[in-house]
Fold this protein.
Amino acid sequence: MTTTDAPGLTLSALTLRTASFGERVRAAAQAGFTGIGLAVHQYRQAREEGWTDARMAALLTEYGVRLTEVELLRHWARPQRYDERRRSEDDTVFHIAETFGARRVNAGMFDEHPYQDLVDGLRTATERAERAGAVLGLEFMPFSGIRDLNLAARLVAAVRAPRPAGAASPGLILDAWHLTRGRTRPEEIAALPPGAVVNVQLDDVLPTPLSDTLHEARHQRQLPGEGAADLTGLLRLLRRAGIEAPVSVEVLSDDLDARVPAETAARAYRTTCRVLATAAVAAPAV
């Protein structure tokens, strides 16, 4: 978790979906974030607009912001089943991580695959992330091929068990929206080994779930503390379980998309700090 003034908060890529790279860095820094996330399509857009890797790195340094996480790795189970365009997206994820020194590579899986294919693919992706200098974080989503925490935890455990001493291991990304809408039980979270979680994503849910879960997830998430999720309870549960992980703010919202990036970043920072202060938790840096 993090301290009440949130020195280690990351502004996830999808909280500022429409911002240019320059707007993203400046808005995050001015709001108080020390890290940002970047998605493949956002990186490619920046390159098309004339940004070089060196120029992007220089702007991050100028504003004192780290690129802490990259997303989304999503073609890692039996990658030969995917076409070259999709495989190149995953290659770009690792390029970004290695070039900018990202701490985490975020992975999800929207397609259905046999369990062993998921294990084998996750192992290979973990090794690629390690070579890029990052740790791989696996996120479950109720509408995806990895629908619940139980399956995600089993996959991570299967890959972590045989890893040699000193080798990087994959971990879990716990997103408050997915935990709430996926009806994850507190005992499932409490049973996680402390080192199994590499990132906690904070956001909030509508008081009444929409019938279209996917639409709600992509368009109507709420800022932390402005919805119906028990974020304070979640953070305190993680603390009691001995789980310490960097915190990111990920709010996919059409309403926020319509606002200027600086306003969205400032609101995201303020609301998250209030939640963290109420929960009175402390956390490592990004």
Notes: Strands lie at 10-11, 35-39, 66-73, 104-107, 135-139, 171-175, 197-202, 247-249. DSSP finds twelve helices and eight strands in the chain.
